[in-house]
């Protein structure tokens, strides 16, 4: 899988709904079919894999992750959980295991939101949260999602039919690299996730006055990038000094016209705030909006700030946490309880089903970079824990 979208630095660029992402989706589906599994792509572009013969009950246990990556990302974020899920389903099938609930492996579409800026596209659709999605999604270049989604086997006009009926999902499980340093530092091969951080993204547009960089005196300038600089610092302070949220990042910024001898007239940026508490996120957002308005006044720029994403923090289900911990113990693997600072489809699935997550160590805690690495032995351990957890959950 890591060959699809491989970068010279050893990482992967596989942006959601790009041609490369489609290649990965096709490769996955071909592998699953070769193993005798049944593959469907839903209207949101999610790939769903099932056994050809299964229980007649309508309730399912879903497990999987996402195949898309960030720009210049790693090989494992997302893909590990999807490949692991396919392997688990194949093992169940090869062994002829009979289950009470239906095991379904899933590759969610566009989890990262790197090209089409809506993250969790696939899981929000599958859980019926269409109101949280843009009506006419566009990528960073303004191109519509309609055609890329169709090429991926989806259908923008039928998006609401991607939703599963209430109560049809008995549980959701996700296997993922930790993406942080805790497991490696503490020496535990398995992390049992207890909670996932919440996230608010605010789109900020700043309009100043472009002009000649040589002739326009400093007093009275309305430099949109200077205003943006204040906003970047205010974002950092929000978490680092004021501790209103756990972390805060300006990850995207573009300016117009972008010439050495022209005063920047317009800037767009995103501020991303994360915390484990929903109410703290609400407060941090309000404080941020107040501060941004003040910076607009002080710099003479027109500033608009609109939240484009609000994803709640969520807690894993105690019963599923127990099942994962027991599976690890039986395999002779020590485990620790850990929160997730990264977002996951699991927290979106929380609105439809109880969820659990299994973490494996990330070397040097690195992720969203080409250096992302987990030792093969650790990857196998995680997949074994997933297999045994799915066995326990599908028993009913
Ligand atoms: O950004 C995140 O936390 C996740 O990797 N999508
Ligand atoms: Mn990621
Ligand atoms: Mn991920
Ligand atoms: Mn000139």
Plain-language structure description:
With 396 residues, this protein is α/β, with parallel strands linked by helices. It is built from 10 helices and 15 strands. 32% of the residues lie in helices and 24% in strands. The strands form 3 sheets. Strands 1, 2, 3, 4, 5, 6, 13, 14 and 15 form a 9-stranded mixed β-sheet that branches. Strand 3, helix 2 (79-94) and strand 4 form a beta-alpha-beta unit. Helix 8 crosses helix 10. The longest helix is centred in the C-terminal third of the chain and has 22 residues, at 278-299. The radius of gyration is 22 Å and the shape is globular. The two termini are 32 Å apart. The structure holds (2S)-amino(hydroxy)ethanoic acid and manganese (II) ion (3 copies). Belongs to the peptidase M20 family. It holds the Pfam family Peptidase_M20. Zn(2+) 1 binds at residues 66, 77, 176.
Which parts are unreliable, with pLDDT below 50 for 5 consecutive residues or more?
A: none
Bound molecules: (2S)-amino(hydroxy)ethanoic acid, manganese (II) ion
Order of helices and strands: HEEEHEHHEHEEEHEEEHEEHEHEH
Mean pLDDT over all positions: 97
Look at the structure and give the CATH class of the largest domain.
Alpha Beta
**Cα gyration radius (Å):** 22 Å
Percent range for β-strand residues: 15-25%
Helix content: 25-40%
Question: Might you state the CATH topology name of the largest domain?
Answer: Aminopeptidase
Question: DSSP helix count?
Answer: 10
- Any guess at the CATH architecture of the largest domain? 3-Layer(aba) Sandwich
Q: Tell me the number of structural domains.
A: 2
For the record, what is the CATH homologous superfamily label of the largest domain? Zn peptidases
What is the overall silhouette?
globular
Q: Which secondary-structure class do the elements indicate?
A: alpha/beta
The tally of beta strands, per DSSP, is 15
């Amino acid at each position: 899988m890591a060959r699809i979208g491989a970068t010279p630095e050893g990482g992967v660029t596989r942006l959601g709904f790009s041609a490369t992402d489609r290649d990965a989706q096709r490769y996955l589906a071909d592998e699953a079919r070769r193993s005798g599994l049944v593959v469907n792509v839903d209207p949101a572009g999610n790939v769903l894999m099932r056994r050809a013969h299964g229980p007649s009950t309508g309730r399912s246990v879903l497990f999987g992750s996402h195949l898309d990556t960030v720009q210049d990302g790693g090989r494992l974020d997302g893909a590990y959980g999807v490949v692991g899920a396919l392997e688990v389903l194949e093992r169940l099938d090869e062994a002829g295991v009979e289950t009470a609930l239906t095991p379904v492996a899933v590759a969610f579409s566009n989890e990262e939101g790197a090209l089409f800026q809506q993250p969790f596209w696939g899981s929000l659709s599958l859980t019926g949260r269409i109101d949280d999605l843009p009506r006419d999604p566009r990528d960073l270049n303004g191109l519509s999602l309609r055609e890329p989604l169709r090429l991926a086997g989806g259908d923008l006009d039928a998006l609401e039919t991607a939703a599963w009926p209430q109560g049809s999902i008995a549980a959701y499980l996700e296997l993922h690299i930790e993406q942080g340093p805790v497991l490696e530092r503490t020496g535990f091969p398995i992390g049992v996730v207890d909670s996932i951080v919440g996230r608010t993204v605010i789109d900020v547009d700043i309009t100043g006055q472009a002009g000649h960089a040589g002739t326009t005196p400093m007093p009275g300038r309305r430099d949109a990038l200077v205003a943006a600089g204040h906003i970047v610092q205010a974002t950092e302070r929000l978490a680092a000094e004021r501790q209103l949220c756990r972390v805060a990042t300006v990850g995207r910024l573009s300016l117009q016209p972008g010439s050495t001898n022209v005063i920047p007239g317009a800037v767009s940026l995103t501020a991303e705030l994360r915390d484990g508490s929903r109410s703290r996120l609400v407060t941090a957002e309000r404080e941020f909006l107040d501060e941004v308005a003040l910076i607009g006044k002080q710099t003479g720029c027109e500033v608009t700030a609109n939240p484009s994403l609000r994803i709640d923090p969520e807690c894993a289900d105690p019963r599923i946490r127990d099942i994962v911990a027991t599976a690890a113990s039986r395999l002779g693997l020590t485990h620790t309880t850990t929160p997730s600072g990264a977002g996951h489809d699991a927290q979106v699935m929380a609105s439809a089903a109880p969820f659990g997550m299994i973490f494996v160590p990330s070397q040097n805690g690195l992720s969203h970079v080409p250096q992302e690495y987990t030792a093969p032995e650790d990857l196998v351990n995680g997949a074994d824990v997933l297999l045994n957890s799915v066995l326990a959950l599908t028993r009913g």
